[in-house]
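Anyone up for a design puzzle?
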């Protein structure tokens, strides 16, 4: 098998699928995008044209053309076509969001009967969170009514590139295909760390795929959760409460930038280096901290604060970025004050935007999963951070 024979199926033709997976995989792979009927106008164009356009940021914005792609609508009438694609795919990627992932389980379970342990179905999950692959494998095996064994390999990934979909794009932004009223914008960041077991035994891998041992992957995953997702959510919520519209505005807020430094270095850095040690590396991590803050607040990316606070209650779930970060830092023996302030800001945003009507403490205990007695110290810290934040605002 040679690299140009690889076939990838990607569930999700949104920001991540088109902005990261496409340009990283397409030079060496044929990609079949599968998405819901609402994406039919775009998927039809993919089928006819075999290419799409994304907008890559950096020092300036530039259009990038991605070829070797096709599109299929997810539906009963295309079930056989999708199963056939899954039956011969070398890799399957999911980029649909954790809440939508269980809906893919029936198709993956049905495809298992067309594969053998000698040719396992390899699924790489691109959703944010921890233990996503384990949960998805359980959902597939539930649909299959039994263990899949070696016929199914499911692994987590670290999707490190920021991507977004922009409605009603204005020049110089270009839509993915002519006549569409949306565009994909992505930053230039490369490489997809994956769990080694999911791709073990493959003769050829796309250059973008970086198989990691369990220790190294856990370190990469925690860096993404705390120093990327946790930072992004914290800045979004605090920026929203201060009236900011875009992340690049936050560069001028010295107090907020100092808060970001404490979060990245004093809390996440201390905790991650204690937790992962040599698998992470002090110098590599500190260089990453400087880079991620510049990337998140990049004026060319011009990421909106509104995108950062959208669906904030989902980002407050127990295994998501804010609660996970607070717990991880605390378990390392470091007080997570900066993260606790971000979590307090997120609950405040959720209440102000109407995503929840629960009282502040009830969100912490009934939604975030903090136990009133076992986590009393963390609850007190978060509530104290909320009081201090309200005074500052």
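Challenge accepted. My sequence:
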């Amino acid at each position: 098998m040679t690299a140009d024979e690889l076939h990838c199926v990607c569930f999700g033709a949104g920001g991540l699928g088109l902005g990261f997976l496409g340009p990283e995989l397409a030079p060496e792979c044929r990609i079949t995008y599968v998405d819901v009927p609402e994406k039919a106008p775009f998927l039809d164009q993919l089928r006819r044209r075999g290419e799409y356009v994304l907008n890559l940021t950096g020092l300036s914005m530039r259009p990038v053309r991605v070829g070797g792609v096709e599109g299929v609508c997810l539906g009963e009438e295309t079930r056989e076509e999708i199963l056939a694609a899954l039956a011969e795919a070398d890799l399957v990627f999911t980029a649909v969001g954790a809440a939508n992932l269980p809906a893919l389980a029936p198709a993956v379970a049905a495809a298992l009967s067309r594969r053998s342990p000698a040719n396992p179905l390899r699924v790489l999950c691109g959703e944010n969170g921890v233990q996503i692959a384990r949960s998805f494998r359980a959902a597939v095996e539930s649909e299959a009514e039994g263990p899949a064994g070696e016929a199914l390999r499911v692994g987590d990934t670290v999707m490190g590139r920021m991507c977004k979909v922009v409605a009603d794009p204005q020049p110089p932004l270009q839509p993915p295909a002519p006549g569409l009223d949306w565009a994909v914008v992505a930053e230039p960041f490369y490489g997809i760390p994956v769990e080694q077991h999911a791709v073990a035994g493959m003769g050829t891998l796309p250059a973008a795929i970086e198989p990691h041992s369990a220790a190294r992957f856990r370190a990469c995953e925690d860096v993404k959760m705390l120093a990327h997702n946790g930072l992004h959510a914290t800045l979004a919520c605090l920026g929203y409460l201060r009236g900011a519209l875009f992340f690049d505005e936050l560069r001028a807020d010295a107090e907020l930038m100092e808060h970001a430094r404490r979060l990245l270095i004093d809390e996440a850095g201390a905790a991650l280096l204690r937790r992962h040690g040599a698998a992470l590396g002090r110098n590599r991590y500190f260089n990453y901290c400087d880079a991620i803050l510049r990337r998140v607040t990049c004026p060319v990316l011009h990421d909106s604060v509104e995108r950062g606070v959208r669906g904030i209650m989902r980002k407050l779930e127990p295994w998501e970025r804010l609660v996970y970060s607070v717990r991880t830092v605390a378990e390392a023996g470091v007080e997570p004050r900066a993260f606790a302030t971000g979590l307090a800001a997120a609950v405040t945003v959720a209440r102000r935007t109407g995503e929840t009507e629960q009282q502040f403490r009830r969100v912490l205990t009934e939604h975030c999963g903090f136990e009133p007695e076992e986590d009393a110290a963390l609850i007190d810290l978060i509530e104290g951070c909320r009081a201090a934040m309200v005074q500052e605002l």
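A detail worth pointing out: The longest helix spans residues 214-241.
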